[in-house]
Amino acid sequence: MAKYSIQVNGKTHEVDVMDDMPLLWVLRDVLAMKGTKFGCGKALCGACTVNLDDTAIRSCSFPISAVGKGKITTIEGISEEGNHPVQQAWEKYVVPQCGYCQTGQIMNAVALLKSNSSPSEQEIEQAMQGNLCRCGTYNRIKEAILSVAAES
Amino acid sequence: MNILAPFQKKSKDVSSQVFKASRRDFIKIGGMLTGGLVLGINFFSCNEKGKKISTLAPNVYLRITSDGEVVIIAHRSEMGQGIRTSLPLIVADELGANWSKVRIIQAEGDEKTYGSQNTDGSFSVRMFYKPMREAGAIAKLLLIQAAAQKWDVPITECDTENSQVIHKTSNKSIGFGELVETAKNSPIPALKDIKLKDRTQFNMIGHQTPIIDLHDIVSGKAIFGIDAVVENMKIAVIKRCPTLGGKVKSFDDKKTLSIPGVIKVIPIKGGDIPPTIEKPLSGVAVIAENTWAAIKGRDALEVEWDLGPNAQYDSTKQLEELTQEVQKSGTLRRNRGDFNKAKAGAKQLIEHTYIAPYLAHATVEPPNALAVIKNGSCEIWAPTQHPQGARDAVASALGINAEKVKVNVTLLGGGFGRKSKPDFIVEAAILAKESGLPIKVQWTREDDLHHDFFHALSVQRIVATIDQDNKLSGWNHHIAYPSISATFDAAVLQAADGELGQGATDFPYNVPSIKVETHDAKAHLRIGWLRSVRNIPQVFAIGTMLDEIAEARKMDPIAQALELLGDDRSITFNEEMVNGTYTNYGENISDYPWETARMKNVIQRVAKEAGWGKKLSSGSALGFAAHRSFLTYVACIVEVSVDSNKKISIHNVHYAVDCGTAVNIDRVKSQFEGGAQFSASLALKSEITVKNGRVVQNNYDGYQIIRMPESPKQIHVHIIDSEAKPTGVGEPPVPPFTPALCNAIYAATGKRIYKLPIDLTS
Questions:
Q1: Looking at A76, A95, A124, which one is the last position of a domain?
Q2: Distance separating alpha carbons of residues B629 and B222, to the nearest angstrom
């Protein structure tokens, strides 16, 4: 067990956890932030995606000890009212079916659009390939991202 | 043959009776709906003569409060199909409610109050469309009566819209809330006195309504099973025996207990054959303060197993054995004409064997359940498709009365059939009892892939004969796969009627001789139902074989399909069934006949929409297949290209669908979009194999689901405008996509596909 001070959504949190505990379980079990989901535990599905500074990371395979001074942003932190442009686009295209993977999809899309504000279809496909959707909402995800890119 | 859980009789023609809820009902529904005008909707079924034959308990409640809010109880499980939106919108449309003032509350699992809530078989809208409309119309009439009395005008001059009653000639309007007190004291109108809306008057049915959980989902606030929390809750992760029928022999938990956060280690009894769906597997549970400690504690466990009778099982070997088996004569299940005669007189004989692997559901939310036991009662929170099944299984495992078990249904992070089995919920209940703590059982992805209720592997052989006149004269379909029934009864070795009735025994084409035969196939894993179930391997075989037959007959496959469907007629099948019946997805064939006209209609529509026969850019090709499943008619055309590295690109998918009345157009479309992706996964990517009784694949690297770059690019859904009774849309998109894809690949490359997943490199 060790003490860590991490920055999540602009707030500093002190946690006392095992140093190999993945960030996912710190967020979900210790800080009770449930918007970030568990899907595979091996960085293979993207359901647990959060942003570390401006980069998308898979929090299920990212130990707390590696966070350091980086700023973590989760789905709870991208907007006050759930009205980030990416979230709005997700609503406009009624992207979700079951919705379980979608917070990870959104966090991955947010990071993509930060690094590339007008991605091509192919760039979207490459950037989003780590995020699985078993319900099969890929085409609406793509449309939603393209619409945000077109408006920026 | 055994009746299977997912194929049980769903309904006859269901009708409803609306009543005012009593004080007792308020208590039963936990105070969720006290105050205002509260209506219970009582469903009953009728026999062929329209006589009420059984009264079920009241199923659904509707409340209108004095401030005009309309509250509707959703009694089906939401897993992405949009049912929490689609059923309430039917009520709201008939009622004339303002959708933004409608609140939807999820029902707990309570059969006495809601009837069976088992959400599978693509039947929620099919079963509840009419009663939901009647409920809305009755509430509407009560409110109109109250307003008409107040204004002293005839009720015929009043209507509802936007949660108000309006008087057309005087332009008066009054909100629902203000009418509640009067409406509450009026007698319930008889069904014969209500007038359902004409379809031209619908504001929501047949239109697009966004799902009610949309904002919660995109803002991370939606509560799935995994998100349910109670005070002092502990997490359990279980090491289960890797082989079916195996058991814990001994275990050493010394290392586990030294891990910070680990509280207890508890063995779980199980490992019976047949496994059933409500019993846990034998294993050892690690209970910890948090999920990570539980996972680490489980990794540190040392368990010695008695691996049981399946320790040597090898799925590749079983496929080889079944391939031998289907060459023989099997058990006759459907017979028409004389196939041997057709064979003797054939000009050409086409024969192939079709192989498909085990599949796992792999819902992105792995199974999980939270159980709290207090004062002899048990409360559950779980992502379950079948809350009553869960309640009964928990009651039986704990040895308490079912009334002492309450099951709260959360959102489901995918279901596809996996979450209708309560095994994982029973684990939580047992551990809560043994530990005296509130327990959340959390499955990892590895647990999910190793211990699923698998879609069974399959070997099928089809022999087709073409006669001297170039007609398809004979069809002989041999089938071997472990039956879902074997999960409940180990003595079952051959496919059940409900399984065969998913494409094989309801083969609808005008062929003079038809013979369907089944063969022994033993179950070595827990076998379950996966989205569209046995339609998957059966329609893969049938749909690709028909394409090959058309080629041999030098016919266009679509022209052949229309020819083989023949004149407009209803097909019944039962007179040709041998030792069984055609189950028609739990419905009477007289209520939902197999109509060739509807199938021909979707085929012609898809051909037109996809530009069948048009010239494509070089390397691209189209493939076609059509199939009726879950009472819905679907035709599909897939456009692919294959590059020099054998990489398959799916450019366009066209579906034409006749699902009767389409309630929420956007969710019908989304089910078809997702169904194409689901089918693309199993066609191109997914395969579970077993060595030494153990599943080989551990995670999404070994068991692959289609990802965005290779997923079908454009999915066009053409919905037939229809007033017919609504039928399922969750499962019907899956079966025809795979054979249409295989046929397109053949058209592009000249390579026929006989084995899934497709591998063009071999």
A1: A76
A2: 32
With 50 as the cut, is the pLDDT of residue B27 above it?
no
Which one is predicted more confidently, B42 or B496? B496
pLDDT tens-digit profile of A121-138?
999 999 999 999 999 999
What pLDDT is stored for residue B3 in this prediction?
33
Q: Domains plus CATH for chain B?
A: 5-218 (3.30.365.10), 225-309+367-442 (3.30.365.10), 315-360+453-749 (3.30.365.10)
d(CA B426, CA B433): 11
CATH number where A118 lies: 1.10.150.120
3-state SS, residue A8: strand
CA distance readout (Å), B513 to B354, B461, B466, B476? 21, 16, 11, 8
β-bridge mates for residue B471, sequence order = none
Secondary structure in 3-state letters for A17-86? ECCCCEHHHHHHHHCCCCCCCCCCCCCCCCCCEEEECCEEEEHHHCEHHHCCCCEEECHHHCCCCCCCHH
Q: In the structure, how many helices (H) and strands (E) does chain A have?
A: 5, 5
Closest-approach residue (CA) in chain B for A94: B210
User: Which CATH number do you get for residue A34?
Assistant: 3.10.20.30
Mutation target to probe the B interface, by most B beta carbons within 10 A, among A29, A128, A146 is: A29
Residue B707 has pLDDT above 60, yes or no: yes
**B 410-469: CB under 8 A from A:** 411-416, 442, 444-446
pLDDT of the residue at B110:
67
Q: Which of B223, B260, B670 sits opposite A1 (nearest CB)?
A: B260
Contacts of B229 in chain A (CB under 8 A): 32, 34
Chain B residues within 8 A of A37 when measuring between CB atoms: 224, 226, 364-365, 413
ipTM field: 0.98
> Residue B203's closest CA among B91, B366, B316, B314?
B91
The dihedral through the CA atoms of A59, A60, A64, A65 has a sign that is: negative
A38, A59, A76 — which closes off a domain? Answer: A76
B215/A82 Cβ within 8 A: yes
For residue B412, give the chain A residue with the closest CA. Answer: A98
Look at residue B419 in the predicted model and tell me its pLDDT.
Answer: 96
What is the distance between the alpha carbons of residues B433 and B437, in angstroms, rounded to a whole number?
Answer: 7
Instruction: Measure CB to CB from residue B292 to each of A21, A96, A99 and give the nearest one.
Output: A21
**Closest-CA residue in chain A for B79?**
A98
Contact A17, A28 (CB under 8 A): no
Distance of CA B242 to the CA centre of its chain: 27
Boundaries of domain holding A122: 85-151
3-state SS track over B214-266:
HHHHHCCCCCEHHHCCCCCCEEEEEEECCCCCCEEEEEECHHHHCCCCEEEEE
A42, A82, A100: residue with CB nearest B414: A100
Task: Give which of B625, B643, B635 is closest to B598, Cα–Cα.
Answer: B635
**Mean pLDDT over residues B166-182, rounded?**
93
- Contact predicate B156/B97, CB 8 Å: no
Peptide bond preceding B242 in cis form (omega within 30 of 0): no
B677 touching chain A per CB within 8 A: yes
Mean pLDDT of chain B: 91
User: Once rounded to an integer, what is the mean pLDDT over residues B206-220?
Assistant: 94
CA distance A25 to A5: 15
